[in-house]
Design a protein that fits this description.
It is a single chain. By secondary structure, the chain is α+β, with helices and mostly antiparallel strands. It is built from five helices and seven strands, in the order E-H-H-H-E-E-E-H-E-H-E-E. Helix 1 packs antiparallel against helix 2 and helix 1 crosses helix 3.
């Protein structure tokens, strides 16, 4: 299937909210317990979050299918923080994470950022490693009393 990477549009917000939850619930189950998956999912509100982030100047890059429907995305903040990288479960293993990370890196370089950094889930970590990010440390924390973890990762842009 052919995909294109394009900037976020307001009408993408509902699809991004839905695919985020679908990804957490379907793919998250491969690296986290059911309880961890549900508290992780509970932290992701609806479409308004994407509209607010876009309005505040964060850049959201969307992978769209042949019908121009959003199927994956990443969000780049102005300081080089990649806040989210999600792909709908029906579109995993298509190289979309790699393409989105490369696109975000190209954008960061064009804005003269000196590094990219993120907090990657157990499942996203391999995609970030393929893109040249290194783990700085494992982050163990709690959400609503449920222990969960991710990885602080970064990539210098020389």
């Amino acid at each position: 299937m052919a995909y294109t990477i394009r900037p976020f549009r307001e009408e993408d917000a509902p699809a991004l909210a839905a695919l985020t939850l679908a990804a957490i619930r379907a793919v998250g189950a491969h690296g986290y317990s059911p309880e961890q998956v549900e508290v992780w999912a509970s932290r992701h509100p609806g479409p308004e979050r994407f509209l607010e982030r876009a309005l505040s100047g964060h850049r959201i890059f969307v992978a769209a299918d042949v019908e121009d429907q959003a199927v994956a995305y990443t969000l780049l903040e102005g300081d080089g923080h990649l806040d989210m990288l999600y792909c709908h479960p029906d579109h995993t293993r298509q190289g979309l994470a790699d393409e989105l990370l490369a696109h975000a890196e190209q954008d960061a370089r064009s804005h003269e950022m000196t590094r990219l950094y993120t907090e990657a889930s157990e499942l996203a970590r391999p995609a970030f490693e393929r893109a040249g990010y290194s783990v700085t440390h494992r982050r163990d924390f709690e959400i609503e009393g449920v222990a969960i973890h991710n990885y602080a990762m970064e990539k210098p842009l020389d």
